[in-house]
Amino acid sequence: xxxxxxxxxxxxxxxxxxxxxxxxxxxxxxxxxxxxxxxxxxxxxxxxxxxxxxxxxxxxxxxxxxxxxxxxxxxxxxxxxxxxxxxxxxxxxxxxxxxxxxxxxxxx
Length: 108
Known about the structure:
- The protein is of the alpha+beta class.
- The chain has a single domain (9-107), classed as predicted glycosyltransferase like domains (Thrombin, subunit H), CATH 2.40.10.
- It contains one helix and seven strands; from the N terminus they run E-E-E-E-E-E-E-H.
- It has one helix spanning 91-107; strands at 9-10, 14-19, 22-32, 36-40, 51-60, 63-77, 80-85.
- A six-stranded antiparallel barrel has the order 2-3-4-7-6-5.
- It starts with 8 loop residues before the first strand and ends with a helix.
């Protein structure tokens, strides 16, 4: 059964992961929506209900800017974890929406 509120797009983006303020590492996304993403963490195990921060870089007119998305791990399997964003009213979330919108426009 599908519980997502927003459409997911297959989108590979390199992201960083922090757990309790400590660096976990980088990984690729499998898909992204305005409400969450699936992270291909492989052997890096993040437990369900863990609070993490996902970081991503976005080029802009003044250079590359790094954004942080507070997230909650909601499920996982052998290939990675699905996360739900905890706060969707941030500059980081707006930047992510721009990436998603540009990817959706590119595909149509």
